[in-house]
């Protein structure tokens, strides 16, 4: 995955982590979710976040940067 840009890599990691979390509780049922929609919504909310909140949101999305 070295040729994948950091944002794409973060989105893939976030999507897989979310899938693992959702499937843990629902291992015998079908799961439908849109990682892109969730990431987009969280990114919009994060634009208004500052300080610890912005840092925690970035960590959840696996895009932590010291620039927040």
UniProtKB/TrEMBL annotation:
Serpin domain span? 10-60
- Identify the InterPro entries for this entry: Serpin_dom, Serpin_fam, Serpin_sf, Serpin_sf_1
Q: Name one GO molecular function term.
A: serine-type endopeptidase inhibitor activity
Q: What are the protein's UniProt keywords?
A: Protease inhibitor, Serine protease inhibitor
Return the SUPFAM superfamilies for the record. Answer: Serpins
One short Pfam name that applies is Serpin
Tell me which GO cellular component terms the UniProt record holds.
extracellular space
Q: Which domain of life is it from?
A: Eukaryota
Name of the protein this chain belongs to: Serpin domain-containing protein
Q: Which organism is it from?
A: Oryzias sinensis (Chinese medaka)
């Amino acid at each position: 995955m070295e040729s994948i840009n950091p944002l794409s890599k973060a989105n893939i990691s976030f999507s897989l982590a979310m899938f693992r979390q959702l499937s843990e509780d629902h291992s015998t049922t079908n799961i439908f979710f849109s990682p892109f929609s969730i990431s987009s919504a969280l990114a919009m909310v994060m634009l208004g976040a500052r300080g610890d909140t912005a840092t925690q949101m970035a960590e959840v999305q696996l895009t932590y940067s010291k620039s927040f």
